[in-house]
Model the fold of this input.
Amino acid sequence: MFRGNHPTRVDDKGRLKIPAEFKRVIDDKYGQKFYITSLDGTIAQVYPFEEWEQIEHKLAGLSTFNPTKKKFLSATGYWGQEVEIDGQGRLLLPQLLRDAAQLKGDVAVVGYQKYLEVRNLDTYRKQVLEDKITPDDAKTLDELGI
Done:
């Protein structure tokens, strides 16, 4: 399971070095293939291919005329690319997404249980500081048993 924030860098060629904490999870549980995508071009979502295939399987069960399914597939297809991790533990982020999300230099790599998010470090820090957990959020978490 992926958890925590492990800042790293995207090099000049657009390669993301997977932090060691996440690389161990990948080596233990997943293969070398990944699907990197986004819902809106502001955050890169890095799915081990096995996890992405589970999403695709669920989508396949929906009607081809479902408008939300079409919107989701359009967005994730536009931003997405299948990639393989190289021998040095790096993933090449899609150029289109890299440019839109400003993923160069220092980035945050955040674990979201089954996938990773890659964010511009300064933008992420600002968002976390400005969008604090509210009493309503705490109530919702309590209702969920967390």
Q: What stands out?
A: DSSP finds six helices and nine strands in the chain. The chain has a mean pLDDT of 97.
